């Protein structure tokens, strides 16, 4: 009988171009990092996935990989247990703790390492399961509640090009004035057909960000709009902004730091609060519940919530507490996008358009190149597993990028200091 036991885990770090996007922590560096995970069975099948590519994550993946040897691709619970035993959470050093004050990407928190590694392996194992069962991942998750998943136009204030000019500027140009932001939205919507719009804020003085939102509301009447300053506003500023945007917002994402701050904003405004910063694990979920749920919409992300199954469990909890659910994103390529799509298609509650940074990337690691959106949505694939395969030539090129860039950990703050040496990244800034 053929053995489908896991024989080998291969992790390849990659780097791809990322535009100079502004956020509360600073600005994106010219290269974004990811890891490509391949899990091979004795029978020669290969399951794939994409995850974080910063150094601590690569170390954790390398440490946990041997635990998978000999395991069946179906043994997800056993994989969870083995990974948790090997990649024990550790205490944060003082500098890591301080670093968290300006970290916008929950995936970089050390406290999430076990959940991140489990997720990285789980998706690749489910890709294998799909190949063995001749079924798409969405069917392994209970079947599609919707045939295609809507995503939103994720706008950023941005500079026209990186300070270090490592390659030709991206086609979006500068995005600072309200007119430029409307043009950015127009370009993205024309290309992808998105129906909802999210503005990453917390980068410019709030009155400029409010002006951009108002211009967007006027240019795209009826489009659901969201703003996300990544907790860079005080409670007072958050309340001023929401008042100035009366009637404009679908939800209000992470205006101010901490659950207490969010609770203070929630008590004084009638727009539902959403987060990917203060409800990022079960402990925080419990705190939100104990406080009467000031946060009404959880922005899930299977990459740090512990995988696809864990996110389905999160959906059930959101339903139990009467919360909404949507999806957060970081810079990523097509394997992540496809895993997000299979997951979102399988969760009836996930009815908001999901976030994706995908339009900001121009490279791909999957065969066939860039994934195609139709009318702002991505169709869930019906072929076995995730339905995408690695383009080996592209993987080699992206790995070369990784070797050539000196970047090993995302550092938006350090990058911003190249433009403005006095930039502190202190939050809330406004
Ligand atoms: O990539 O600049 C960025 C985002 O700000 C990202 O770091 C956040 O994690 O997109 C994310 C968010 O919604 O907060
Ligand atoms: Mg956010």
From TrEMBL:
Domain Mandelate racemase/muconate lactonizing enzyme C-terminal: 178-272
SUPFAM superfamilies: Enolase C-terminal domain-like, Enolase N-terminal domain-like
Signal peptide coordinates: none
Alphabetical list of Gene3D superfamilies matching this protein: Enolase-like C-terminal domain (3.20.20.120), Enolase-like, N-terminal domain (3.30.390.10)
Domain of life, source organism: Bacteria
Family from the record: Belongs to the mandelate racemase/muconate lactonizing enzyme family. GlucD subfamily.
Protein name in UniProt: glucarate dehydratase
Annotated source species: Hydrogenophaga pseudoflava
Annotated gene: gudD2
